[in-house]
């Protein structure tokens, strides 16, 4: 049956990324239909660690307070990480992934809670927005595109019947086995680590007690064991009532159905513990990326576009950034002020960032740990091991400062269009085209993140005449722009420029110390994809 209702965007997949995108679009005035196969979030505690940047998204989606209220571990406990050698309760350990070290560069604290709680908060927020319709119990089967829109055919899980839905665009946020990706023939490159991994959810009062004694305040803990060649035994708290999850590779010759997971976990802990397994699942350890994040009227986001082992909490956060990047660009096209290159920039910005995240952090971590375990052994040379282990501990949070996804070289930010976007760059308060803007107080004591209304923002340190040039240029092009004034001698001077143009997703697109109408017009045109310079065309060919 074909449904007559029309919407601007169909989002296939009502997980966290799909619901985040739906909220982003709806807040920009677009009508969104979400097709989700499950009637309620699945109670599997994956995707727990939410970065400060992700919490900026929840702030923009008007759901930050609700998310923090939903967490299962109280703030007083802490959400820190730890790395141990050999066994979880062994002698050697150090703190790991201390995200609080970069707190000053973001407008919100990081958070940690099970993914099903995150999904519930997003569903509740979506329910408050009348232009979002969530249809649960629908599983997409096909997506077809024509000149005027997209048709999504979905099967009703309740009775097996099918319905068809129409929209101007479709976005697949339907996971690693994405129907949307396959239907759109976007292709996928896979780097298989040839490891079958287990995910256990279990209850253990003894482990809870021992960790409270030995490692209080630690919520996620990974163990390096020589036999595993760099792959982790990874524990995480779900709550403070003894529920944990556990990721680990299973032996290559093991039968997952008969393997003794109780014994495996106890050996990883290093002591006998009580253990009630509540969930057991398996996944393949691999890195996969779509060959394109979309074309025409069909796009993909989150695990449909990219997936990797759950090391370091990068996955769900990367998906949320996809949603925030794509949301304003679709809205700009819908509202008529986007240029022809704006939607293409979604792939050109987000895909290189994932490549870098996977290669420079996740796979590099596996390789670094593998090399360390091969080179150092406390049983054969204790002094050398302890020296190397202590060195690792003192440098364990270097990746936190260096992890800063950026869009250098994008065709819609100022500067050379050389496609150098990646995830590796030290944090700074300096405003740089292609980089996330750090919060600095403006003249009224608030930051951009307190004042932003969803469109472009110009931060002007004095320079009223130059700000007027941007106001005029934006009005002529129909681009939503608000001007925020700042004290040239206040915190905003850390930006290093008198004028800072910021995109709706809080990335800088242009900086300067002066601007006339022509300069402002060009800066806004570039930021909205209005031009298609030769360099940008070359980037598109290289990405296709």
UniProtKB/TrEMBL annotation:
Signal sequence: where?
Answer: none
Top-level taxon:
Bacteria
Q: Which InterPro entries match?
A: FAD-bd (IPR002938), FAD/NAD-bd_sf (IPR036188), RIFMO-like (IPR050641)
A single Pfam family it belongs to is FAD_binding_3
Q: Say yes or no: keyword Flavoprotein present.
A: yes
Which UniProt keywords are present, listed alphabetically? FAD, Flavoprotein
Domain FAD-binding residue range list: 8-357
The name under which this protein is listed is FAD-dependent oxidoreductase
Essential cofactor(s): FAD
């Amino acid at each position: 049956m074909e449904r007559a209702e029309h919407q601007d965007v169909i989002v296939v997949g009502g997980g966290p990324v799909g619901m985040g995108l739906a909220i982003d679009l709806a807040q920009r005035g677009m009508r969104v239909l979400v097709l989700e196969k499950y009637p309620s979030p699945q109670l599997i505690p994956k995707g727990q660690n939410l970065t400060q940047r992700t919490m900026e998204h929840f702030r923009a989606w008007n759901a930050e307070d609700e998310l923090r209220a939903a967490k299962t571990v109280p703030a007083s406990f802490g959400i820190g990480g730890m790395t141990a050698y050999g066994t979880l309760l062994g002698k050697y350990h150090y703190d790991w992934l201390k995200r609080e070290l970069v707190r000053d560069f973001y407008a919100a604290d990081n958070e940690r809670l099970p993914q099903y709680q995150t999904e519930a908060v997003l569903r509740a927020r979506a329910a408050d927005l009348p232009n979002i319709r969530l249809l649960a119990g629908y599983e997409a089967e096909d997506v077809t595109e024509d000149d005027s829109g997209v048709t999504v055919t979905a099967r009703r899980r309740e009775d097996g019947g099918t319905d068809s839905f129409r929209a101007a665009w479709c976005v697949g946020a339907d996971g690693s086995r994405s129907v949307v990706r396959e239907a759109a023939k976007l292709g996928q490159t896979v780097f298989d680590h040839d490891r079958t991994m287990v995910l256990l959810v279990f209850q253990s009062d003894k482990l809870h007690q021992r960790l409270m004694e030995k490692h209080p305040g630690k919520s996620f803990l990974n163990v390096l064991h020589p036999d595993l060649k760099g792959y982790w035994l990874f524990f995480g708290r779900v709550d403070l009532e003894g529920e944990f999850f556990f990721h680990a590779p299973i032996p290559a010759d093991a039968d997952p159905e008969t393997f003794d997971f109780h014994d495996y976990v106890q050996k990883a802990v290093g002591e006998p513990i009580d253990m009630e397994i509540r969930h057991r699942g398996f996944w393949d350890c691999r890195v996969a990326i779509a060959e394109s994040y979309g074309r025409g009227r069909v796009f993909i986001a989150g695990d449909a576009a990219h997936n990797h082992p759950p090391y370091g909490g990068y996955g769900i956060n990367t998906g949320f950034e996809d949603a925030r990047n794509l949301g304003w660009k679709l809205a700009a096209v819908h509202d008529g002020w986007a240029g022809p290159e704006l939607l293409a920039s979604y792939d050109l910005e987000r895909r290189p960032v994932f490549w870098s995240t996977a290669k420079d952090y996740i796979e590099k971590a596996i390789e670094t740990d593998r090399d360390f375990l091969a080179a150092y052994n406390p049983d054969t040379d204790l002094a050398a091991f302890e020296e190397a282990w202590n060195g690792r501990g003192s440098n364990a949070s270097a990746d936190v400062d260096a992890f800063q996804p950026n869009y250098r070289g994008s065709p819609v930010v100022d500067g050379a269009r050389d496609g150098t976007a990646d995830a590796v760059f030290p944090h700074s308060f300096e405003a740089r085209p292609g980089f996330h803007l750090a919060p600095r107080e403006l003249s009224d004591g608030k930051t951009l993140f307190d004042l932003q209304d969803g469109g472009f923002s110009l931060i002007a340190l004095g320079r009223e005449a130059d700000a007027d040039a941007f106001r005029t240029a934006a009005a002529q092009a129909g681009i939503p722009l608000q001007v925020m004034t700042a004290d040239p001698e206040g915190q905003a001077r850390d930006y290093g420029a008198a004028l800072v143009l910021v995109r709706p997703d809080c990335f800088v697109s242009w900086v300067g110390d002066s601007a006339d109408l022509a300069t402002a017009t060009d800066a806004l045109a570039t930021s909205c994809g209005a031009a298609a310079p030769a360099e940008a065309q070359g980037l598109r060919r290289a990405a296709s």
